[in-house]
Q: What sequence folds into this?
């Protein structure tokens, strides 16, 4: 069932929650241990057998996230590790030297990382960078591919001059239909694209904003709405476009990681991962935070996401236009998450857990055994 209608009562509720968050911050120094903080209401969906000692860090993080996020310069929290491998609560800030953040909480060390703000990474005609996928001996992921098109290349909705990435081919096990998987902000245009609108390869940003009938690979079939509020509890930024095996393949171009496996795996700190995307092609990194609560900037406003994966890399892991890339393990290629955002450096990327994405859209990865 398509999920793109909103309840009018949400606005009233969000205003009330915002007022409560502001009051919470006023008393931050005196009431850090209050278990009614908004972060304490999050559920941890990371498996206990892979969390290990991070379980205590997650408990402390959830207990205090409401107060930490009420700080005007805090953009996220997560459970992670210190430089010497001890469990810690991670706090992501807009700038270095942010005052008012404790060194520890309930005996758990706090690690502050000045990441700057996080943003969804779709390329649009207003994007000043103009960067494209690499050519010159490497695959040009912004070009029009012969059908069936590979995953990891340029795509977008016909209704906007923009481009993101095809993350994977997925299928409905009940009726056998196949779909292209990407982000809501790539295919559903931040909740604004109509169902059955055309989805293209490449996206219009890569065709000079022209609309070419021959570029259609499918139609928007479903998406999970994003609630744009700094107090919301979004979990996924995802959408699917009805396609066919004649129009859509299930492997990356040459030079990529190949075909993702059908079996998904859970994320854990230290896990080695990789992705293939429209702009930065094949990149590798590792999971540095789990159970993340992160504020993400969009054209429609700021949205808060919970239960997110944070991926770190010494080099940019994700760039504008890579939104929608599938996060898989390195080297086994098991899907872990769906990438959609990062800080301005691209070295700290944000991904949804892949299992909630697939469950809420009613599909499975159409990949290798």
A:
């Amino acid at each position: 069932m398509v999920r793109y209608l909103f309840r009018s009562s949400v606005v009233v509720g969000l205003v009330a929650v915002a007022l409560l968050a502001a009051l919470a911050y006023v008393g931050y120094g005196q009431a850090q241990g209050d278990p009614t903080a908004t972060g304490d209401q999050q559920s941890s969906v990371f498996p206990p057998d892979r969390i290990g000692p991070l379980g205590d860090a997650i408990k402390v993080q959830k207990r205090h996230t409401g107060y930490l996020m009420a700080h005007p310069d805090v953009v996220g929290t997560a459970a992670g590790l210190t430089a010497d491998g001890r469990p810690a609560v991670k706090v992501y800030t807009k700038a270095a030297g942010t005052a008012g953040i404790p060194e520890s909480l309930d005996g758990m060390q706090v690690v502050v990382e000045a990441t700057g703000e996080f943003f969804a990474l779709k390329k649009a005609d207003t994007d000043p960078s103009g960067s494209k996928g690499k050519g010159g001996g490497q695959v040009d992921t912004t070009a029009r591919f012969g059908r069936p098109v590979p995953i990891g290349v340029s795509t977008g909705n016909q209704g906007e001059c923009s481009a993101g990435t095809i993350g994977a081919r997925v299928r409905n096990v009940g009726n056998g239909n196949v779909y292209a998987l990407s982000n809501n902000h790539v295919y559903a245009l931040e909740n604004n694209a109509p169902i059955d609108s055309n989805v293209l390869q490449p996206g219009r940003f890569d065709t000079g904003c022209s609309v070419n009938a021959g570029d259609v690979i499918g139609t928007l079939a479903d998406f999970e709405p994003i609630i744009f509020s700094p107090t919301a509890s979004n979990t996924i930024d995802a959408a699917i476009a009805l396609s066919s095996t004649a129009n859509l393949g299930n492997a990356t171009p040459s030079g990529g990681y190949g075909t993702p496996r059908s079996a998904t795996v859970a994320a854990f700190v230290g896990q080695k991962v990789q992705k293939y995307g429209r702009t930065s092609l094949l990149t590798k990194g590792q999971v540095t935070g789990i159970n993340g609560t992160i504020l993400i900037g969009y054209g429609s406003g700021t949205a808060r996401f919970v239960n997110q994966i944070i991926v770190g890399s010494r080099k940019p892991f994700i760039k504008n236009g890579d939104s929608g890339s599938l996060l898989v393990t390195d080297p086994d290629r098991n899907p872990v998450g769906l990438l959609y955002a990062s800080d301005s450096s691209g070295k700290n990327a944000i991904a949804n857990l892949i299992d909630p994405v697939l469950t809420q859209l009613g599909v499975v990865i159409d990949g290798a055994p």
